[in-house]
């Protein structure tokens, strides 16, 4: 009795792994293992085909202690008629087809998706035709209304592939870049050629009226100082020893430009400050000129130029030797040399001794 029970609950068909374990002993070559695996799969397929054609065998009633019933499947299989036997045979063939799926996981095809594909592509007057791609294929669907998984289109995540550039396209692109570069240089030269006016004073502890200098935005600071120096050559109203006459004897290297409280070095041009809008300690641009190019005209009136109405005391022309002697005395002690990396507007201003300045607003 125990043998009968054991035979009932012991699987009769061995798996592929178990058959390979019994036929393969020790280390074998990969080619031999593939050959034996193919033989095992072929044997399983042959046994499954034979089992499908033979049909499921009825259990022994003597072993299961189940009495024969006139209405059971075993009794009615022969008395059900040809239609019933045909239906049962078709069902057995269908079960046999399901057993014949021993391919790898990558080769499995969903039977329902294949049937749906054929149904969607069936033509009433001819054979099947390829299904046209729709917008739904571009985006993966999580599921249809009937619970079936959505379809995925190949390479759906790939964006627009750029076209390869030909030599003609590359030459055209290079010509466009060159044209843009020439236009920018022309605009830059036009801005540099725009004239401006800068009123100034000479400073040696007191504000000495200097005048107004006509310049271009592309001129350097040393050009401005040289023109300021030449203002003191003439005499005013025939006066002897006019205060400005002594400044004419100073060289350009002996003069320095102080804009507000910032010392501007000689090698900077005004175009640099116009385009970068550098801010001084007062919170306003050091040279507040526009970045637009004005139409060139023949010697316009200096009073009509941009900057002619500025406060002259903001721009000081100072003798460098006087500054060396008095740089520890206010207001020269608050002057600091221009540095493009410094934030003059937000830094805390201190004197040479490290004491913080307090200014009334």
UniProtKB/TrEMBL annotation:
Residues 103-113 have a biased composition (Acidic residues). Residues 1-14 have a biased composition (Polar residues). Residues 1-26, 40-153 are annotated as: Disordered. Pfam families: XAP5 (PF04921). Keywords: Coiled coil. This is XAP5, circadian clock regulator domain-containing protein. The keyword Coiled coil applies.
């Amino acid at each position: 009795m125990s043998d009968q029970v054991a035979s009932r609950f012991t699987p009769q068909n061995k798996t592929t792994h178990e058959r390979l374990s019994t036929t393969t002993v020790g280390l074998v070559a990969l080619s031999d293992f593939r050959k034996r695996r193919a033989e095992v799969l072929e044997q399983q397929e042959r046994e499954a085909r034979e089992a499908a054609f033979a049909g499921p065998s009825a259990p022994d009633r003597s072993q299961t202690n189940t009495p024969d019933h006139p209405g059971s499947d075993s009794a009615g299989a022969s008395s059900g008629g040809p239609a019933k036997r045909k239906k049962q045979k078709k069902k057995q063939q269908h079960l046999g087809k399901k057993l014949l799926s021993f391919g790898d996981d990558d080769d499995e095809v969903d039977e329902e998706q294949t049937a749906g594909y054929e149904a969607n592509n069936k033509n009433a007057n001819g054979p099947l035709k390829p299904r046209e791609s729709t917008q739904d294929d571009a985006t993966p669907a999580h599921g249809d209304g009937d619970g079936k998984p959505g379809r995925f289109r190949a390479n759906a995540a790939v964006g627009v592939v750029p076209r390869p550039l030909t030599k003609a396209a590359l030459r055209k692109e290079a010509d466009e870049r060159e044209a843009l570069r020439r236009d920018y240089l022309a605009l830059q030269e036009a801005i540099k050629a725009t004239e401006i006016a800068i009123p100034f004073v000479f400073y040696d502890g007191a504000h000495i009226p200097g005048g107004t200098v006509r310049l271009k935005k592309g001129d350097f600071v040393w050009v401005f100082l040289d023109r300021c120096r030449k203002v003191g050559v003439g005499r005013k109203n025939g006066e002897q020893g006019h205060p400005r006459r002594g400044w004419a004897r100073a060289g350009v290297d002996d003069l320095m430009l102080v804009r507000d409280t910032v010392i501007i070095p000689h090698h900077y041009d005004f175009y640099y400050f116009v385009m970068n809008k550098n801010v001084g300690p007062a919170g306003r641009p050091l040279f507040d000129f526009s970045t637009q190019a004005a139409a060139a005209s023949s010697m316009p009136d200096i009073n009509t130029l941009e900057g002619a109405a500025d406060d002259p005391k903001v721009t000081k022309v100072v003798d460098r030797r006087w500054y060396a002697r008095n740089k520890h005395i206010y207001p020269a002690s608050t002057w600091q040399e221009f540095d493009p990396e410094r934030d003059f507007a937000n830094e805390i201003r201190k004197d040479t001794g490290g004491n913080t300045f307090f200014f009334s607003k």
